[in-house]
């Protein structure tokens, strides 16, 4: 049963948007070229249809420009501010920290009240309000004592450090929680709606249960209502059949892509279409089963275990945890146009979040202090990279 709280009754004009497709310890730079995946294993392209579009080069590059900040505690979400600085959430501490993008100086804004960090839960994704210039609201997805929920908090810059976050206003609640598979990525789409990737909390059946919020991509108004134009009447569910969605990104034509943890065989990159079923637990990876939407690319978990994704330079860039690498997935429409390439393999350890930094640059966070990594001196860190 779907449980949600609508914090503010919304009076909205109809919003119509058709999404035509579419879920190392050292500080040295990468080699000149990335490792190329075997078509039979990592990043297996999945055929489909694509409109005539410009195709990016088959091979790309990654250059680490600098380490922006070090000494971060279990960083998870990352949100660039309008002035270029960065906000980063700490999964375990439940805090949000501002990072000066030039000097790397860190200022803790405060703690988000109500976070209950355990297992893979805690303070996860963050996103700025579409009206941030006027309302200074930060949206956050976190695990509470009873569920996963989305709140918004006022960022009051004029208050002393450590006291700059207001009390959380619950926008949406009732997302199933577990020791594992809490999802957690949130992002505002090109349509101004709030998208959230959820996990099935270790209870597989929830992913196929349309009345459950677990194992889904949700689409909400900023006030937490089911967004106008959603595929199922009066429901926040946008797509279903997901195991654990932790990456959301749109291309320049407003098509949504999502990364997803598999279990033992295949991790996935999916092109998201509203109302489609992405298979879990009926299928893991490409199955060809009628009624299930196959991924556009798939990897074995030891090469991926994907978290955040971003779109830049004609490709999806996918941060990998267990795989300890950054994947480049070149696209033509919603097809993979060439074999995905891996970069930074093992160089910085586990990679959690990747966010566009403008043009051909990305912000990239490591995730070595989360209990599953091997922290090096300076971990965790934020990197600035140039991609092509």
UniProtKB/TrEMBL annotation:
Q: Where is the Glucose/Sorbosone dehydrogenase domain?
A: 72-372
The protein in question is named: PQQ-dependent sugar dehydrogenase
Q: What keywords is this UniProt entry annotated with?
A: Signal
As given in the record, the signal peptide range reads 1-25
Question: Where do Basic and acidic residues bias regions lie?
Answer: 378-388
Span list, region Disordered? 24-59, 366-388
Q: Which InterPro entries does the UniProt record give?
A: 6-blade_b-propeller_TolB-like (IPR011042), Glc/Sorbosone_DH (IPR012938), Quinoprot_gluc/sorb_DH_b-prop (IPR011041)
A matching Pfam family = GSDH
Q: Which domain of life is it from?
A: Bacteria
């Amino acid at each position: 049963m779907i449980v949600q709280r609508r914090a503010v009754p919304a009076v909205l004009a109809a919003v119509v948007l058709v999404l035509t497709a579419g879920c190392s310890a050292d500080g040295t730079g990468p080699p000149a070229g990335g490792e190329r995946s075997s078509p039979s294993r990592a990043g297996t392209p999945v055929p489909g249809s694509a409109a005539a579009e410009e195709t990016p080069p088959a091979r790309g590059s990654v250059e680490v420009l600098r380490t922006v900040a070090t000494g971060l505690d279990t960083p998870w979400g990352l949100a660039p501010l309008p002035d270029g600085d960065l906000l980063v959430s700490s999964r375990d501490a439940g805090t949000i920290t501002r990072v000066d993008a030039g000097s790397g100086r860190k200022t803790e804004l405060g703690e988000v009240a109500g976070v209950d960090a355990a297992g893979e839960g805690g303070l996860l994704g963050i996103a700025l309000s579409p009206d941030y210039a006027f309302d200074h609201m930060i949206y956050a997805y976190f695990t509470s004592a009873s569920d996963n929920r989305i709140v918004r908090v006022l960022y009051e810059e004029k208050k002393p450090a450590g006291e700059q976050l207001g009390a959380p206003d619950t926008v949406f609640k009732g997302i199933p929680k577990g020791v594992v598979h809490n999802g957690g990525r949130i992002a505002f789409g090109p349509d101004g709606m709030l998208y959230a990737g959820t996990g099935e909390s270790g209870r597989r059946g929830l992913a196929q249960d349309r009345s459950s919020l677990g194992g889904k991509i949700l689409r909400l108004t900023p006030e937490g209502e089911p967004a106008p134009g959603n595929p199922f009447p009066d429901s926040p569910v946008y797509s279903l059949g997901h195991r654990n969605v932790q990456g959301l990104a749109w291309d320049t034509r407003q098509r949504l892509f999502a990364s997803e943890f598999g279990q033992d065989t295949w991790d996935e990159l999916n092109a998201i279409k509203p109302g489609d079923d992405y298979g879990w637990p009926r299928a893991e990876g490409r199955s060809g089963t009628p009624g299930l939407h196959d991924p556009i690319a798939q990897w074995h978990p030891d090469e991926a275990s994907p978290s955040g994704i971003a779109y830049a330079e004609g490709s999806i860039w996918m941060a990998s945890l267990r795989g300890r690498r950054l994947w480049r997935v070149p696209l033509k429409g919603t097809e993979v146009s060439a074999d995905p390439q891996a970069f930074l393999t093992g160089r910085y350890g586990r990679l959690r979040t990747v966010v566009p930094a403008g043009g051909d640059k990305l912000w990239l966070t490591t995730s070595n202090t989360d209990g599953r990594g091997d922290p090096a001196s300076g971990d965790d860190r934020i990197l600035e990279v140039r991609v092509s």
